[in-house]
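Lab notebook, design round three. We kept the backbone fixed and only want residue identities now. Task for the bench partner: fill in a sequence for the structure below.
Input structure tokens:
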């Protein structure tokens, strides 16, 4: 393999997982992080957030990783500069590219006659790579560089596995030398020396590398997230039809997932999607389309269904309790999915605040330490459930799936649970003496 030297800007979920994957594959990575807390954690050998397998793998490949607060030194020896900085939503629900252009302000003065490839891993609207090219051309007119769109598809909770063994790698550039360099970058992934827990996922076939235009690469990322969000809103709509007709969405899911054309992923009915990607990327894609003069009606419906779903699901509990005012309610799970400690666009937080606004007395629990603003929080599940009138399962952590609900139920004032992720077995809950409410399920 050709051992490359890379600068990765941003040590978040994407930047750090990609750094570790590329370092395990044998490349040398300069990881640049401007957030002091994250930087200091990394410099002391600790990864700054919860992500399975990442801590031990980070230690395994430390000799290939060099951590710094700025990229001045790193850029001298790197042939590739990867941008993995955040692109959060703007107040108008577009993508905020200020972190991208702030990073480029640092990169531009360091470009010279040695060719460099700027690779955009962050999720950015169509046309951003072209804007980046124009920006760098204006700031460094004599420099030799190319820009490539290389969107990331990893999932939090299994980020390292996805970074090492992605379903596909998208190479969005028309520059032949840039394409050659990107193939050299990614070809060694398949043979990376990986933690034992991940070895079983090593693909037997070569990882597909798709060469496309920068614009298609940019849009493909949004299309993928919009499609998955659509599956979630679709099954939630089916669950709502189930509730109206007496069918059971779990049985429907079992039928659908046997169909290879449909597949079973992202078909669990529930409270809807949250997190750092689906909400912002679906809204951004809607804007991208509108800016191009096209109204993406299907996507608008996906977003609407998702924002209403939590209220629809809560209604059944409200009816059962005869209103929320004065009721004590345990909210179980604040992170947007299990196996992460990320609270961005957390449904658990939103639901806890909504219940409080409607007069409920809420205590939240999560297996990860958390300090949600304005919400009473405990990391003791027993304490959270003691004396409550009802519990709502918001995030399907194993801790809740595998809990001894018979014992937990004894702590509760009323054994009433709203399973907002259809993660529990209704029969078991009934046997444990619970009133069970699921989403589109017969209880
Ligand atoms: N989180 C995911 O699951 C995921 C998956 C695929 C794609 N993405 C996309 O990847 C991008 C990054 O997402 P993330 O979740 O890793 O974000 P994040 O906020 O966790 O990480 C971004 C990091 O970049 C750092 N940073 C910003 N500007 C910097 C600079 N100039 N120099 C050094 N460090 C800088 C920030 O301090 C932060 O630590 C986003 O565009 C996101 O949409 C995220």
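Proposed sequence:
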């Amino acid at each position: 393999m050709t051992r490359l030297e890379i600068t990765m800007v941003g040590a978040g979920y994407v930047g750090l997982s990609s750094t570790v994957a590329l370092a395990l594959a044998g490349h040398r990575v300069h990881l640049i992080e401007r957030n002091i807390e994250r930087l200091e954690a990394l410099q002391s050998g600790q990864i700054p957030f919860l992500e399975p397998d990442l801590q031990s793998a980070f230690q395994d490949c430390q000799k290939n990783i060099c951590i710094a607060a700025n990229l001045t030194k790193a850029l001298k020896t790197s042939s590739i500069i990867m941008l993995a900085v955040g692109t959060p939503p703007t107040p108008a629900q577009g993508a905020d590219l200020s972190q991208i252009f702030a990073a480029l302000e640092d990169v531009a003065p360091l470009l010279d006659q040695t060719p460099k490839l700027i690779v955009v891993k962050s999720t950015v609207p169509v046309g951003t790579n072209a804007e980046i090219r124009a920006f760098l051309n204006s700031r460094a007119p004599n420099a030799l560089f190319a820009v490539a769109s290389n969107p990331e598809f990893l999932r939090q909770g299994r980020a390292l596995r996805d970074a090492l063994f992605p379903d596909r790698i998208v190479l969005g550039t028309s520059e032949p030398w840039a394409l050659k360099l990107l193939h050299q970058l990614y070809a060694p992934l398949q043979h990376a020396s990986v933690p034992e827990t991940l070895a079983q996922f090593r693909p037997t076939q070569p990882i597909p590398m798709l060469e496309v235009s920068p614009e298609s690469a940019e849009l493909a990322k949004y299309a993928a997230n919009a499609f998955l969000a659509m599956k979630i809103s679709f099954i939630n709509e089916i669950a709502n039809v189930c509730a109206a007709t007496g069918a059971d969405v779990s049985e429907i899911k079992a039928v659908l997932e046997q169909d290879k054309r449909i597949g079973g992923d992202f078909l669990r009915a529930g409270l809807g999607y949250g997190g750092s990607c689906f909400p912002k990327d679906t809204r951004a894609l809607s804007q991208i389309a509108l800016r191009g003069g096209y109204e993406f009606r299907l996507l608008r419906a996906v977003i609407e269904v998702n924002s209403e779903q939590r209220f629809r699901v809560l209604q059944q509990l409200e009816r059962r309790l005869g209103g929320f005012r004065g009721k004590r309610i345990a909210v179980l799970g604040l992170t947007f999915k299990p196996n992460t400690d990320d609270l961005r666009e957390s449904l658990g937080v939103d639901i806890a605040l909504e219940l409080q606004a409607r007069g409920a007395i809420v205590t939240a629990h999560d297996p990860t330490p958390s300090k949600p603003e304005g919400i009473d929080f405990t990391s003791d599940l027993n304490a959270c459930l003691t004396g409550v009138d009802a519990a709502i399962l918001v995030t399907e952590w194993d801790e809740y799936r595998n809990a001894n609900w018979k014992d937990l139920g004894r702590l509760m004032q009323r054994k009433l649970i709203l399973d907002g992720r259809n993660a529990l077995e209704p029969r078991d809950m009934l046997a444990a003496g619970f009133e069970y409410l699921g989403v589109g399920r017969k209880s």
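Keep this in mind before ordering anything: The longest helix spans residues 214-245.
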